[in-house]
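agent> Task received from the user: take the single chain below, predict its 3D structure, and emit structure tokens. No templates, no multimer pairing.
agent> Plan: (1) validate residues, (2) run structure prediction, (3) serialize to tokens, (4) report one or two observations.
agent> Step 1 OK, no nonstandard residues flagged.
tool_call: predict_structure(input=
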Amino acid sequence: MRIMAIDYGDAHTGVAISDLTGFLAGYTTTIHTRRQEQVVEALRCLIEEYGVTELVLGYPKNMDGSLGPRAEKAEAMKAVLEQAFQLPVTLWDERRTTIDAHNILAAQGKNAKKRKQTVDAVAAALILEGYLTRRRSRQ
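)
tool_result: status=success, residues=139
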């Protein structure tokens, strides 16, 4: 079974897919488009290619835990994904993942321009790692 994490954004959507065991984050990529239907189609191709059976969608809560417009956008995307793929979709608190992703890439010596191209994929990997860690701790 493979699990896909999605960091859905306005212009870039990061994607991370677990290994076959569902224990480790593996493949990552970024979908570069503002159009929701293009994001969904790109996700469809990845879901089919990797045999994804579960989705985890970043849920951007405010730092105080409240919900704002970005969280509402994630909730709407969750409904779109459920309808498009008939797969379970879990909303996952993604507070600080983009900040942490920037810090990881900066520590690797990536300049700001190079970080912008990959930060969403790294954020998706962080979402996936957090989700997989919680799953392992509950088994």
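agent> Step 4: summary for the user.
The helical segments are 36-50, 69-85, 97-107, 112-138.
agent> Done.
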